[in-house]
């Protein structure tokens, strides 16, 4: 049984199942409303294709069934049907037994499949007989039944296995839209269609089919009403036209209430229905038909298309009457804003008096600072309605701007864009033009082309500089954010300087209370400016200024901005606390538009602190909030965080999926930061999978700035990974300039974690073992001071590997054991596996050794075997493990002898069977070997001629 609302694909799946099967019989039935009251009409339609075949079978039970359903070739006789001399009992079970026997006969010698669509519309007698037969079908009958029905609340036998169809998830819905579109589909239009389609396949198809190619490509504006008229007419005709008048009127009241307020109460609808004199059982009729269902004091339509069809499918005069009834009830209940919104919808033409009343009510509703998103959305809708009633164009523009601002605060980007489109045709005052450009820039910044957003925000700052310096400062801050996202370092510094210079303007005086106005946007930026310009003494001062400012700030917007500034100066603990407060304040005040950005800052802070599990949790929550708010750019930034977290935890598939999605869309929108983090995540994944050369090839363009989408911040932060990849891959390219730049940045911001990573890089490249040990020790102390468990574990692992290769196994086991504990504590599974393998290679007793054949392999043999089983060639294994191909070949021959295998394929099967794990799920078993401590910078000739302790390479041998 497939259960689901209309449009989810029930009929498509049944039609797919009803295709002819080899050597079998398929009976296909689609029940209809017109025949749902005619007795046995369902069985008549189901068996009619095989009636002639059944008549040729001499079987009294089949004859009785055919006679009962009217398939004997003559008109149906009296209801009582005789079998021989005994009358057929007029009980449902009798017809069910006859149907079960008939299905068994049809399936004899060949399989039988019965496909029944819209089974909820079967007549009662056919339904009961079919259920009786289904309950008694066994595999021996060789008969199967596939049913599809709506969620109508009717009970079906529990023996029927049920699958409930759900709306498509975002990837599937995106794939459907892309396949259906006749040409290119712009990301912005795609996101609009995804929100309008609600994951319903048929609705998504009709949305695409209703738009032209230029509209789908984003070249022409979308229509105000996306759903095609024929879709609404079909839904109205199919589900609503046959209802009693009172039931349809009740559904109209419900859909009208939801048209204005998505969370409209059921009590309001029922009171309006009572005033309209509707029958008391109207709601029960609608519920029995599976059209609506109640959830506490909420009434929900089972299909979003039904709600739209119930409202749009009725004449305008009936809709206005429904609005009037709801307005009366809501105003009596004290919900003035929603009530006035309904009253505005019942008016034809302009009404300045009603518009003034609505504006006054909205002003009272928004007087407090703590507002929920529902109130903000209701105020936005009411102001937009008041604008429609306003004659004066300036007043209309002002109300539309405020409506758009409330919709944005409520996290509804989909409602902001249409309001901005309506404003483009009006000639607003300069200050309104500034607010319009500011809001348009913010929307574009969160869900569009970032360069366009920056230009709009700079234009808004010019318009607002004389009349609203506070908003002008915020516009400059957002323009700086846009420059930061796109990787324009000079533009970012320019915008930050402009914000900080506002404090020196004669129009702006410092706020002694420091809690509102322009100083809120400039205090942090004034402290931030010298750090960004390279003043190495300003990092601590900036962190203290930001901490003090965040402690007394209460605005979620400003807290999010301060968290971003703290990230830039390396004050990660301040960023974490400030971003957390921003999330809490935004939720408390209903500022849903701020939540995705605040969670983004919080996730990045956790990421840089090494708390990857917490970063993933925050990023997942932020991704859901960003998608709900229609902020596609924030969603991509958060997916970049998820890619990095997945690279750490060992989820290779998740890392690639997130990173590829970010790179594909982020490049188009100019999200250089997100794209760079995604590239960096793939490089870190390569490191974890023992592919250091791939990691180095990916990181060099990113760190050197040769990539088109290389971000200036990521160019610095990715240097430690590049240093590790270069050393492990024995890459001859120089990294000394990038490393000095990273060290300078670490000293400027006094970031203990970054300083520790810089020391680790120097330890990896140190030629003197004593110097390397000292640098590793200093790095580990800084990691502990910064609380960076993951990076500290990486430092200990690398130190332990080097100690093991210097023939100091006891000291190596100390470092590797600490690394293993740290990796396990922070959930870095793939890195923990690598540390565990190194511990075993250093002579530590394994916690649980497999009793299979692989237990007889030495650690080196096991490492080689796992790499070969994963598909690596002998030369690739030699390069990764710093061995010669001849040594690898020698070890591999011994592996084949010990395990008794003759091919690499058999070797892979033995590892899966005896080790209890698949080689593909444990790529860490093939980790690389770190070069010995006498390795110097890759550009040095000593690096080329380094002799490895466990290698047969001669000093003068050239690296392949």
UniProtKB/TrEMBL annotation:
Signal among keywords:
no
Ranges for the HTH luxR-type domain? Answer: 850-915
Q: Would you kindly state one Gene Ontology biological process term found in this protein's UniProt entry?
A: regulation of DNA-templated transcription
Q: Report the SMART domains cross-referenced here.
A: HTH_LUXR (SM00421)
The source's domain of life comes to: Bacteria
- What GO MF terms are annotated? DNA binding
> Is the keyword Acetylation in the record?
no
**Which keywords does UniProt give here?**
DNA-binding
- PANTHER family listed in its UniProt record: TRANSCRIPTIONAL REGULATORY PROTEIN DESR, TWO-COMPONENT RESPONSE REGULATOR
User: In its UniProt entry, what is this protein called?
Assistant: Transcriptional regulator, luxR family
Gene source species: Actinoalloteichus hymeniacidonis
Q: What is the lineage of its organism?
A: Bacteria, Bacillati, Actinomycetota, Actinomycetes, Pseudonocardiales
């Amino acid at each position: 049984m497939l259960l689901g609302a209309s449009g989810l694909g029930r009929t498509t799946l049944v039609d797919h199942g009803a295709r002819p099967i080899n050597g079998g019989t398929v009976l296909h039935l689609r029940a209809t409303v017109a025949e749902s009251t005619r007795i046995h009409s369902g069985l008549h339609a189901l068996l009619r294709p095989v009636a002639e075949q059944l008549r040729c079978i001499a079987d009294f039970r089949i004859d009785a069934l055919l006679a009962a359903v009217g398939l004997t070739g003559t008109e149906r006789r009296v209801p009582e049907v005789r079998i021989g001399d005994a009358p057929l009992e007029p009980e449902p079970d009798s017809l069910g037994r006859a149907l079960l026997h008939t299905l068994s006969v049809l399936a004899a010698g060949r399989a039988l499949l019965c496909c029944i669509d819209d089974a909820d519309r079967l007549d009662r007698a056919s339904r009961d007989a079919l259920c009786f037969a289904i309950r008694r079908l066994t595999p021996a009958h060789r008969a199967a039944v596939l049913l599809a029905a709506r969620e109508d609340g009717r009970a079906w036998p529990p023996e029927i296995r049920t699958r409930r169809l759900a709306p498509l998830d975002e990837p599937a819905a995106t794939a459907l839209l892309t396949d259906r579109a006749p040409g290119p589909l712009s990301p912005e239009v795609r996101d609009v269609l995804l929100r309008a389609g609600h994951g319903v396949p048929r609705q998504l198809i009709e949305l695409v089919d209703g738009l032209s190619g230029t509209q789908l490509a984003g070249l022409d504006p979308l229509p105000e009403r996306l759903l095609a008229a024929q879709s609404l007419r079909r839904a109205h005709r199919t589900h609503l036209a046959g209802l009693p008048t009172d039931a349809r009127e009740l559904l109209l009241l419900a859909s009208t209430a939801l048209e204005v307020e998505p969370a409209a109460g059921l009590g309001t609808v029922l009171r309006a229905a009572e005033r309209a004199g509707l029958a008391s059982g109207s709601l029960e009729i609608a519920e029995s038909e599976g059209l609506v269902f109640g959830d506490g004091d909420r009434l929900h339509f089972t299909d979003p298309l039904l709600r739209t069809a119930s409202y749009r499918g009725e004449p305008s005069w009936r809709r206005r009457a429904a609005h009037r009834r709801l307005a009366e009830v809501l105003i009596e209940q004290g919900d003035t804003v929603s009530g006035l919104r309904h009253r505005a919808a019942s008016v034809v033409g302009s009404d300045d008096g009603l518009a003034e009343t609505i504006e006054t009510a909205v002003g009272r509703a928004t007087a407090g600072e703590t507002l929920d998103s529902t109130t903000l959305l209701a105020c936005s809708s009411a102001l937009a309605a008041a604008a429609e009633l306003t004659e004066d164009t300036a007043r209309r523009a002002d109300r539309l701007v405020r409506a758009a601002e409330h919709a944005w605060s409520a996290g509804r980007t989909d409602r902001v864009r249409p309001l901005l489109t309506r404003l483009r045709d009006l000639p607003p005052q300069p200050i309104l033009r500034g607010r319009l450009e500011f809001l348009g820039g913010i929307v574009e910044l969160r869900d569009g082309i970032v360069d366009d957003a920056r230009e709009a925000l700079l234009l808004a700052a010019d318009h607002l500089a004389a009349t609203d310096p506070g908003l002008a400062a915020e516009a400059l801050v957002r323009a700086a954010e846009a420059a930061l996202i796109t990787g324009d370092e000079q533009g970012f510094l320019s915008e930050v300087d402009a914000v900080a210079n506002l404090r020196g303007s004669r129009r702006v005086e410092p706020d002694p209370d420091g809690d509102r106005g322009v100083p809120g946007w400039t205090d942090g930026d004034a402290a931030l400016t010298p750090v960004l310009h390279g003043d190495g003494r300003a990092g601590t001062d900036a962190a203290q200024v930001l901490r003090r400012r965040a402690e007394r700030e209460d605005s979620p917007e400003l807290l999010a901005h301060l968290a971003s500034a703290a990230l830039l100066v390396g004050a990660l603990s301040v960023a974490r606390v400030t971003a957390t407060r921003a999330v809490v304040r935004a939720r408390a005040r209903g500022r849903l538009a701020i939540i995705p950005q605040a969670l983004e800052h919080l996730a990045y802070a956790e990421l840089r602190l090494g708390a990857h599990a917490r970063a993933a949790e925050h990023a997942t929550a932020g991704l859901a909030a960003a998608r709900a708010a229609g902020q596609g750019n924030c969603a991509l930034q958060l997916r970049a965080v998820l890619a990095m977290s997945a690279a750490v935890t060992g989820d290779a598939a998740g890392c690639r999926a997130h990173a590829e999605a970010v790179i594909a869309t982020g490049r188009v929108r100019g999200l250089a930061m997100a794209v760079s983090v995604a590239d960096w995540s793939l490089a870190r994944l390569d490191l974890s999978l023992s592919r250091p050369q791939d990691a180095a090839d990916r990181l060099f363009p990113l760190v050197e700035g040769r990539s088109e989408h290389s971000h200036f911040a990521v160019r610095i932060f990715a240097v430690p990974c590049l240093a590790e990849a270069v050393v492990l891959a024995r890459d001859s390219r120089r990294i000394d300039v990038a490393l000095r730049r990273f060290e300078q940045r670490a000293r400027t911001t006094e970031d203990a974690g970054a300083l520790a990573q810089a020391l680790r890089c120097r330890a990896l490249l140190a030629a003197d073992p004593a110097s390397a040990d000292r640098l590793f020790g200093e790095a580990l102390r800084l990691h502990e001071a910064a609380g960076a468990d993951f990076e500290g574990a990486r430092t200990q692992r690398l130190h332990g590997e080097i100690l093991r290769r210097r023939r100091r196994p006891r000291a190596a086991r100390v470092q590797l054991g600490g690394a293993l504990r740290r990796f396990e504590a922070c959930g870095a599974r793939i890195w923990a596996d690598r540390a565990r393998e190194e511990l075993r290679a250093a002579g530590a007793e394994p916690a649980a050794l497999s009793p299979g054949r692989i237990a007889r392999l030495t650690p080196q043999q096991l490492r080689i075997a796992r790499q070969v089983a994963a598909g690596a060639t002998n030369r690739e294994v030699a390069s990764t493990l710093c061995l010669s191909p001849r040594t690898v070949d020698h070890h591999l021959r011994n592996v084949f002898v010990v395990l008794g295998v003759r091919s690499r394929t058999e070797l892979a099967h033995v590892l899966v069977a005896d080790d209890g794990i698949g080689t593909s799920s444990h790529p860490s078993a093939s980790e690389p070997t770190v070069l010995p401590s006498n390795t110097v910078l890759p550009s040095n000739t000593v690096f080329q001629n380094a002799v490895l302790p466990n290698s047969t390479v001669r000093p003068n041998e050239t690296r392949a």
